[in-house]
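Predict the structure of DNA polymerase IV.
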Amino acid sequence: MIAETPPAPRKIIHVDMDAFYASVEQRDDPSLRGRPVVVAWRGARSVVCAASYEARRYGVRSAMPALRAERLCPDAVFVPPDFVRYKAVSRQVREIMLAHTDLVEPLSLDEAYLDVTAPKSRLASATAVAEAIRARIREETSLTASAGVAPNKFLAKIASDWNKPDGLFVVRPHQVEAFLTPLPVGRIPGVGKVMQGKLEALGIATVGDLRALALEELQGRFGSFGAALYRRARGIDERPVEPDQPVQSVSAEDTFAQDLPLDALEPAIRQLAEKTWQASRKTGRVARTVVLKLKTAQFRILTRSLTPDTPPDSAQALAGIALALRDRVNLPASTRYRLVGVGLSGFRDPDEAAPQADLFDAALR
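Done. Here is the predicted structure for DNA polymerase IV.
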């Protein structure tokens, strides 16, 4: 019996633009270079979209309340975000990646996975491809990117953060165990502060500690996520790079200048439904599920969803369903809300979205 040859390891690159939004602003306005730049609208409810490395030295981070960022870095220059410009640069970067492989999986405007196991550019190695991409990004956009090269997506993403900014780090197949063993368990995607606390209570501080636990024990304690922890501790990640993933959801949300009662949210819900509807039309697909998101003044997040028999066919229909979902919120009338969002999910291609009853009726005609 002839033994099967195991497949060669994949070659995955994770490319991550450095402080992307803030770097675009500094590139386009020379007066901002070398200064702490915070990309955010000013206001009590605004949050930070991005921070330059100069601002990060003061502890400013993305998703932080803008007021806190201002307290941490009083000299910061606040710049309102310009997503039209950011998307244009993102398209430039995407074209550079596609010159090397068709297997590009965007994660956001500023990062993507690439499978370069068989690159179009025929460069000698994945490392050479990563270096070529970074060099061309610098040349054509005057921006820097960091990259991680590894046998899978999980490791490549960790590696891309290793030498930031403007860095490259490579994890070769024979280096995986040595690379992972000393890492804090918090470096594993999905291990937030709560999970990290649970693991530390078990005496697990590093990935090496985690590797000592049996699959059965991790599954018994953490269910399916325990199985994921078991695989990650061993550097196992079989997820393929998936280019051009179809849209799964679209949404729009708004944070109010002051907290509002539930019955005052209708104008905002109708406006957000219009924005969400217009965004959904660009996908060419049909959404089955309507989602309403609310955040109370105490930062409690609530979601209500409905999958109607017939998908909404207009912004007005979407708004009507979202308002009906609002009426399903049973908190006290005194509750105030700081944010509302309207979303669509469960997208299907048009020929998959037709109700089965309609298809059955058509067959009978």
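The domain at 181-233 is CATH 1.10.150.20 (DNA polymerase; domain 1).
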